[in-house]
Design brief:
Four copies of one chain form a homotetramer.
Chain A lengths: L3 E2 L4 E5 L6 E7 L9 H10 L18 E2 L3 E2 L2 E2 L4 E6 L21 H8 L15 H17 L3 E9 L2 E2 L8 H4 L9 H16 L6 E8 L13 H10 L4 E6 L9 H4 L3 E4 L2 E4 L7 E2 L2 E2 L4 E7 L8 E5 L5 E5 L13 H19 L5
Antiparallel strand pairs in A: 1-2, 2-3, 3-7, 4-7, 5-6, 8-9, 8-10, 10-16, 11-16, 12-13, 14-15, 17-18
Helix pairs in contact in A: 1-3, 3-8, 6-8
């Protein structure tokens, strides 16, 4: 069950970075929806290596092939299987890893757990697995669109360069730069930092802010399947994600009398004056914007020499070849968007069962 | 499924704060374990209202009754059902709420979702549901103990009073104060702040640090059931929890060359020089200490007059009676400990299935 | 997960026959339904020991206590916990079993699996666990009633006494006897056979026929959760059930040209001329009556001396004391009804998610 | 979730008969097992159309392609994705079905449920979906073999030709005919009947007997996941399966004193004198052979004119073209074998978690 996300809307993903293909099977997708395949491919293109100067020079075509579940342009209710063939593999780049564990990677833990060393590009733990997330997320977004829901993801910090606290999250401004950062000047600094890291064979982390508009009150289940639990689990499953906070999150500077979100009526609708709750109360959406922040660590794959151990249990030095991103941003943004969509569509479908 | 935690070791909980009882059914608990009922009651006593001057004056006996699954002192493999009867209920305290939603509570969202207003003390969303978590967590801890695993939970901040960055997490020092804070001087300040909040009919939030020692490499499943995803989902399901970070978390000040945890051999065991990974790599434990931080918002129930709306969709003023804690700490500490234990025992049992 | 039935509407049950109580937690019950507690108790009364001369002389009060999930007479959407205290326990009757396995019982297999011998009345494998099924089934029936669905269960055979093939399943006729057999003359013979078995300290098996009316087309999921799979799994989980067939079942005497159910229109509705499909095609209901047959073996607990082995791995003779039914019918009828209701309500709730 | 079998060892399948491909994703397969790809292809060849004179004349190559989860000949613990491309599609054969529902098929129920008519060869409900079952079953069998378990499937009846009650299930005899029938003379009669049906454009049903040897005591979970429930659900999910019975099943002619399986010791092992229990007691294997019977209805696709209705809700006549088997046997035998293996490997892995 470890490779399946979701309860009603479910993604079972598969594939290693240097195997034949990566992909997934989507189950529980609502029947009768028009499927815009161009949108799905476009979402996938956003996470493609080589799409930005800030990333790796690897070029991958990454064309998605749909194998089932769609007939005459519509979802049929049957599972939707899809795959993306792997290509442009420089497996020999990874030969030096056959015998050695990369620091802060999943190499050692996979080997401990399974007793198998698939050294080619991280195998299953490669960021390439996010292809399945992005495709499934695009399907989810097609459904959420019909419900009037939009998801937007912004870069708010790279290394020690952060946007100001009162910066406004303006989509149009953000679309002006590849990091989808709402402050253009800061965006330029962030990009310069990432390029410097690339040059220095180092890497840098970043923070991401996600806003969801249009979710009505009533999504999310109490207790074990609270909306924030579902979102946190989805986000922390993204490689390199180290933290999740929603609403006021780790900022506990306010007292209750200041932090409580007062209710008031607006045009016949219950609203809140502030939104420290981040759109979720008691695990259930309250109709306000849902928002959360994520922390991404610096990518572990750097080309500097590092201290490590080998399969024989000896200390050794490691020099990783291969072509790596110096920062998980901006390519992780569509992955965050996708996992948000996957989580929300599942929450919506679950919410349909609370009444006869 | 929304009230069930876990995959193999599972807790299905039930109960409203002013109903007949709260409790749960534990399924998948390993057979043949000696059950120390005193330990279970002792854990429950730690979360009991009235156990500290910092909390509410409500007194609740909270004696756990085990209904099944234990025979001659040992777990039988059958489900373990337990309950705690509710008593000392001042339901009339809540009469003013029959018609009004408390700000930053689950009142409005439950009503939106279910169309029912159970106004008595928060109903299902009451912190009293954590009784089931603590009892199930105590069972899990009995099993984890046999595997040599210990869990410790510390208060690291209340409002704007925080321990120093380099403060050492010394259990014995922490046991000297009710907040289990590793800095005794700060602990005193924190307690004073909480008492001041109580006096001012206000509330305050806090941060919690949890350390797990003794988990071997190999727990946690890749992809959808990564150990950090399971922990985050469990923690964010605790009422008032707003954020989760593990290892370096939201602190992204270091570059990859500094943040990577170099491997080395120590007494025939693979170790890491640093532990920015927080004991988890690629979703799987690596044998180092697992640690994470949690943010808890100020408790929403305060006795000051607040702006709100009523069931008729009118703006109104609300004055909450009842007896409330001014801070979710220190009573949330055993709940964090419990949810950690529940998550880890489940992860352990799952990990047993990765080989024939 | 082994003690939880269902996907959306879920029953997690607990309890041993000679423990403190048996009961369960229902999750996923639709909110806002009026709960007729008298109906629930009445259903429970139908399976009570001592309710018929054909059964054991044990008398059990079996009053159900609801602990949560209902407020002011309505379901709230929160889990519904319930329990029935055990009483009238003659645990000493079972002392002879402490050391010996009863033939064709679960004694040896539980001991093999768990390494624990809970010898008191079968422990968890006791038919007393069906209390939880009947209570949860009654809740499900309250919901199904609102959807216009009725479930009826008939005895069609006891030992070698069977109703005729062309016997009509007339409810009113069946209500005239405790076996709910549609042929009154055969019913009398069946009862006489059961009473003779009781006298001879022997037991006898029987067949059950269940008809569900009112299920619209579209319930049941294709592939892994086909309606017949869900029903079969539910029925075969009932102690002593050895076989399940739906529609034409094991009768394969007809060729395809005779067995196919021709479609035709009736009052604007798609109907079938015959119903060899038993109301299910491709795993999904087609709007016709759903019907299936079940086989129940003779109860394994008989008071004659039997050959067995003991915990020390020695051959031995066993004489079971205690008060046992000579036939699982008629008391299993409400259990079949309950498991049918549990399965159907779950299937209905799942079916709500196939569209946006 | 409707297209996923299993709890720990899981198969998520996909594909329509006239789509691009059918296949599946296997999750939870134990790591480190040597994968014999020739065995997997050989199992698949057994269910291939055109493999027997008794079946359709359709020829399909059905080569399985493995996309992930295997490295250097061994399972890695990662999901194993596989697919079989569809070919030799005569979609135009199905044009007459675009507008009409085939009697006793899933056409009408799928349309009722999803509002979509994928008329090409049954779409998702096609028997071609069993390819995924057979491939996953072959993987399961590779694992079960290492545990010393064997599964054998026999034809015991076709139409009104049945083997004698006391016929011995001798593998070598059965291997002498395509129906794997233990009585060679009856096998010839059965084959003649099937060929006659083919000629008459009719179809016929059959019964199947499955025996599993080598399962130790302790597999299967009590209550909701009893071994017989898991097996029944798996078997009844196979297209055309109408009934399941294990052990004595629907034969209730014996009284308890005759039907109980007396225990005795043999070479230090607990055995039973008879095996009316079919190797399962209280839902858990007892170490004896597990055996069960299945009923398969006559295939619904026949080329005679039939009465039906169309999408416009009008009565009409239907003449199905296309190339169909006159009997689901013998090609269903490897599917039964596969579903048995899938169920048992899952039960084994679950059973590993009952102890610390």
């Amino acid at each position: 069950m470890s490779n399946t996300f979701g309860h009603i809307f479910r993604l079972s993903s598969f594939g290693e970075s240097h195997g034949a293909a990566v992909g997934g099977v989507i189950d529980g997708y609502p029947a009768g929806l028009h499927i815009d395949l161009d949108f799905i491919q476009a979402q996938l293109d956003r996470r493609r290596p080589g799409s930005t100067a800030m990333g790796t020079n690897r070029k991958e075509a990454d064309r998605v092939e749909i194998l089932s579940g769609i007939f005459e342009g519509k979802s049929t209710g049957a599972p939707i299987a899809f795959l993306v063939r792997n290509s442009n593999q420089h497996s020999q780049d990874y030969d030096s890893l056959r015998n050695t564990f990369r620091p802060s990677h999943a190499d050692y833990t996979y080997y401990s757990k399974y007793g198998i060393r698939d050294h080619r590009g991280g195998g299953r733990s490669s960021a390439r697995e996010s292809i399945a997330r992005v495709v499934a997320g695009a399907f989810a977004q097609l459904a959420l669109r019909e419900l009037g829901i939009s998801i937007e993801v912004f870069t708010t910090r790279i290394g020690d360069i952060a946007i100001d606290k009162d910066c406004i999250f303006d989509s149009q401004v953000a679309q002006g730069n590849e990091l989808h950062c709402p402050d253009p000047a800061k965006a330029a600094d962030m990009q310069a930092l990432i390029l410097r890291m690339k040059e220095e064979q180092d890497s840098v982390g970043g923070l991401v802010h996600c806003i969801v508009k249009g979710v009505p009150a009533g999504w999310g289940e109490p207790h074990a399947l609270k909306l924030q639990s579902l979102l946190a689990a989805a986000m922390l499953s993204i490689p390199a994600c180290k933290g999740f906070e929603y609403g006021s999150g780790f900022d506990i500077s306010l007292h209750g009398s200041q932090a409580n979100d007062a209710f008031f009526m607006e045009n016949g609708k219950v609203r809140t004056r502030t939104n420290h709750s981040g759109g979720i109360q008691g695990g259930i959406s309250n109709g306000e914007d849902i928002y959360f922040n994520l922390a991404f660590k610096p990518i572990a794959s750097i080309s500097r020499e590092q201290e490590s151990v080998n399969l024989q249990g000896e200390n050794c030095q490691l020099l990783i070849k291969g072509r790596h991103d110096p920062c998980v941003l901006p390519r992780v943004l569509p992955v965050v968007e996708a996992m948000t969509a996957i989580t929300l569509l599942d929450a919506y479908l679950l919410s349909k069962t609370s009444h006869l």
